[in-house]
Design goal:
Layout lengths: L2 H37 L6 H12 L9 H25 L9 H30 L11 H17 L3 H30 L6 H17 L2 H12 L8 H17 L3 H29 L2
Helix pairs in contact: 1-2, 1-3, 1-10, 3-4, 4-5, 4-6, 6-7, 6-8, 7-10, 8-9
């Protein structure tokens, strides 16, 4: 890696880590409710799920499992943005000529592929902690969950659900980065400003996040279902989607979607805005 590529990688890594933390704390309460809705054996509404959670477990329950993604998501977001940045550098032959939107999407797909290998075990632990409600918990915390999964199922147990995660991350990040870069290009043309005001970054990041979740949401429902079921061989993505559809129809495949979109806008707006602001600060100290 050349000096300039190395410095860019460092900046992407640092900015991605900080952005991941911003995204996590903004969106985790929504995420807890989403996972519970997706894995519930009864038909719950969003408001009912929120009410039950707070009444029975207290408001702090909305941050259940936050320790796992705190460091994991920071690392995963760093990997995502480093992968995205390096792929952009590879495709951009002329630094003065911006990439086409399909190239941004391709960069997003490759970044999503790389991030999946960090994200899968992080989400598995997070999901299992999030669905612990009443009764004696199987897992005492993040580390205890990690150790027990490793002891019971080995390293492969931590990667339970990797196929649906890939099915979500690759097309999701194609849409994510393609929409984000496309909107920034549109706003630059509209305003005549290369350095966009904060409100346009928030809007671009928020809509990009909605696009990420909308492209293949059922894969995420299947992922949650597979990751919280810790008995027997791992069911396939298609078999899980079929089972959910047979039981609850199309609505079952989109359980928790409204809540997810509600989370997507502020969480991803925070992530991209913090990323851009951190990159600007780093550009001043790292050439």
């Amino acid at each position: 890696m050349t000096g300039s590529a190395a410095s860019q990688g460092i900046k992407d890594s640092v900015a991605g880590t900080v952005a991941g933390a911003a995204c996590l704390f903004t969106g985790h309460p929504f995420d807890t409710l989403r996972v519970r809705l997706q894995t519930s054996t009864t038909k719950l509404g969003m408001i009912e799920c929120l009410k039950n959670t707070v009444e029975k477990e207290g408001a702090s329950a909305l941050y259940k499992g936050v320790t796992s993604p705190l460091f994991g998501m920071m690392f995963e977001t760093a990997v995502l943005f480093v992968g995205y940045g390096q792929m952009k550098k590879l495709l951009q032959k002329d630094p003065n000529k911006p990439l086409e939107l399909w190239q941004y999407s391709l960069c997003g797909a490759s970044a999503g592929f790389a991030a999946t290998f960090v994200l899968t075990p992080v989400e598995l632990i997070k999901c299992r902690l999030q669905v612990q409600t009443t009764g004696p918990p199987k897992y005492k915390g993040t580390f205890d969950c990690f150790v027990k999964v490793l002891k019971e199922d080995g390293v492969t147990g931590l990667y339970r659900g990797i196929i649906p995660t890939l099915a979500r991350e690759i097309p999701g990040n194609m849409a994510f980065f393609g929409v984000y870069e496309g909107l920034k290009r549109y706003f630059r043309t509209k305003t005549g400003q290369e350095d966009l005001p904060l409100r346009y970054l928030i809007l671009s990041g928020g809509i990009g996040g909605i696009a990420y979740w909308s492209i293949f949401y059922p894969a995420d429902v299947a992922k949650s279902s597979i990751q919280v079921s810790d008995n027997g061989p791992t069911p396939s993505l298609l078999a899980t989607l079929k089972k959910i559809y047979q039981k609850d129809g199309i609505r079952g495949l989109y359980r928790g979607y409204v809540l997810t979109v509600m989370r997507a806008f502020p969480a991803n707006a925070a992530m991209f805005t913090v990323y851009e602001m951190t990159m600007k600060a780093l550009d001043k100290v790292i050439p």
